[in-house]
Amino acid sequence: GENVEQHPSTLSVQEGDSAVIKCTYSDSASNYFPWYKQELGKGPQLIIDIRSNVGEKKDQRIAVTLNKTAKHFSLHITETQPEDSAVYFCAAGRSQGNLIFGKGTKLSVKP
Amino acid sequence: ETGVTQTPRHLVMGMTNKKSLKCEQHLGHNAMYWYKQSAKKPLELMFVYNFKEQTENNSVPSRFSPECPNSSHLFLHLHTLQPEDSALYLCASSQDRNTEAFFGQGTRLTVV
Predict the structure, then answer these.
(1) What is the spatial distance between Cα A49 and Cα A58, in angstroms, rounded to a whole number?
(2) Mutation site, A96, A103, A105, interface B, largest B CB count within 10 A
(3) Confidence at residue B93, expressed as pLDDT on a 0 to 100 scale
(4) Is there a contact between A49 and B2 if contact means CB atoms under 8 Å apart?
(5) Is there a contact between B103 and A97 if contact means CB atoms under 8 Å apart?
(6) Residues on A contacting B at a C-beta cutoff of 8 Å
């Protein structure tokens, strides 16, 4: 079946450094790629998404890049802060109704 | 606060019990979803409702029975569950199937 691979599973960075999380997907028909942040005791929250008609999207300290040929996309967080510590999930699919999620990356930002 | 409310937050039930999870959204959305989140596994989509009609059932065992009486409420009825069904059950909603989904905080279910 279709799947999404996410790496790394854990990531520890120093405050102020950048963090990069990478995902690859198998379904070439996927055209919607959201990223979610999940804090302890809360549900996932969408932080940024990209659709296959663009290669990069940025929102303040967060950016996502997409390479459809290679079927991979990445999340970039610059100038990390302790409040960025959470579990981050990537997903890929044709719509919200058929997303395949990665296993998650636990990001720890050390003050 | 995402506008999607799930109750209860925690539930412990025996394998012979029958219980229900409730989800309510006040966002005017037309699509609602149930997801299962288990430790060390990807988030799994269980059911999708669009305008109160079930459009997806991802091979979910019949011991999980969804109900969507109106576009604001979604239930997940549980009966004769197994210990491996213990997980965080998340509800989400979106304006339609092609727009951003908002998640509730989930119900932590433990089957004993």
Answers:
(1) 10
(2) A96
(3) 94
(4) no
(5) no
(6) 4, 32, 34, 36, 41-46, 49, 89, 91, 95-104
> A58-83 pLDDT, tens per residue?
999 999 999 999 999 999 999 999 99
Instruction: Using DSSP, state whether A63 is helix, strand or coil.
Output: strand
Is the predicted pLDDT of residue B57 greater than 80, yes or no?
no
Distance CA B79, CA A59 (A): 44
* Mean per-residue pLDDT over chain A, rounded: 94
- In A, which residues are within 8 Å of B41 by CB distance? 103
User: B40: buried, middle or exposed (CB in 10 Å: 19+, 13-18, 0-12)?
Assistant: exposed
Q: CB of B93 within 8 A of CB of B50?
A: no
The count of other CB atoms within 10 Å of the CB of residue A89 is 26
DSSP state of B52: T
- pLDDT given at position A75: 98
CA distance A84 to A98: 27
